[in-house]
Design goal:
Elements (H helix, E strand, L loop, with lengths): L5 E4 L2 E4 L2 E8 L2 E4 L3 E8 L2 E4 L3 E8 L2 E4 L3 E8 L2 E4 L3 E8 L2 E4 L3 E2 L2 E4 L2 E4 L3 E2 L2 E4 L2 E17 L3 E16 L13 E14 L2 E13 L4 E13 L4 E7 L1
Parallel strand pairs: 1-3, 2-4, 3-5, 4-6, 5-7, 6-8, 7-9, 8-10, 9-11, 10-12, 11-13, 11-14, 12-15, 13-16, 14-17, 15-18, 16-18, 17-18, 18-19, 19-20, 20-21, 21-22, 22-23
């Protein structure tokens, strides 16, 4: 089916789903059926009652997708909620993203915050904001910059995992330091700061300052900062 129509919403109302070239919402719009588009831009408030599949997503206001969502390129400056699974290949989150089930894709850049009730799976996961992941966070490369507040995941797994505290440019004199909490962290090459975990397991494990770790298991190399606490350490 050829995509030839645009759905432009400037006022308030409910509109049918279908296939569009461009969806642009500047008012307050509800889309009552599945919607598929090349671009989906929200400057006001939108609600998709069913599923959304699109190429480019830009959210400057508030958007909600009740069921599942698929997108190639996603930018969230405001807030977005997805009730089901979200397959968002490339995301940049400067605002808030909430996902009811799983979040998957290729590349994630989190400068705002995400809250996910299920697993998060990306090739590359880079966060200098905050995250709350109720399931497993897994990626080939995981970089976490801790500015403020607490980020958490049930488990974290990856190839190279780097967690470092970062100065908060907005609060240059503030004493609050960000932290990461997880039950299990497992990877090939792991470096942690300001992290609390029950178990850390990897080939190369470096436990930096501010960490509280229950058990460390390593295969090749292990180092511990004097300002870190580890209950048990074992070479496997």
């Amino acid at each position: 089916m050829k995509r030839s129509e645009n759905l432009i919403i400037n006022g308030t109302g409910s509109y049918p789903g279908g296939r569009y070239d461009k969806v642009s919402i500047r008012g307050e719009g509800t889309i009552v059926n599945d919607v598929e588009s090349l671009t989906f831009h929200v400057y006001g408030t939108s609600e998709a009652v069913e599923n959304l599949k699109t190429g480019s997503v830009k959210i400057f206001g508030e958007a909600e997708v009740k069921m599942n969502m698929e997108a190639e390129d996603t930018l969230v400056m405001g807030s977005m909620m997805v009730g089901g699974n979200a397959h968002l290949k490339k995301i940049k989150i400067l605002g808030l993203l909430e996902v009811g089930q799983r979040l998957t894709g290729d590349e994630a850049n989190i400068k705002g915050s995400i809250a996910v009730n299920g697993d998060v799976e990306y090739d590359k996961f880079d966060s200098s904001g905050g995250f709350e992941i109720k399931g497993l966070l897994t990626a080939d490369t995981i970089k976490v910059g801790l500015r403020f507040g607490q980020s958490s995941a049930e488990e974290i797994g990856g190839g190279k995992i780097t967690v470092k505290k970062r100065s908060n440019s907005l609060l240059p004199f503030g004493r609050e330091v960000g932290s990461l909490v997880a039950k299990v962290i497992e990877g090939d090459d792991i470096y942690l700061e300001n992290t609390k975990a029950d178990m850390v397991r990897g080939n190369i494990v470096k436990i930096g300052p501010g960490c509280q770790i229950g058990v460390v298991e390593y295969r090749d190399d292990f180092t511990q900062d004097p300002k870190a606490t580890i209950k048990t350490m074992t070479k496997i």
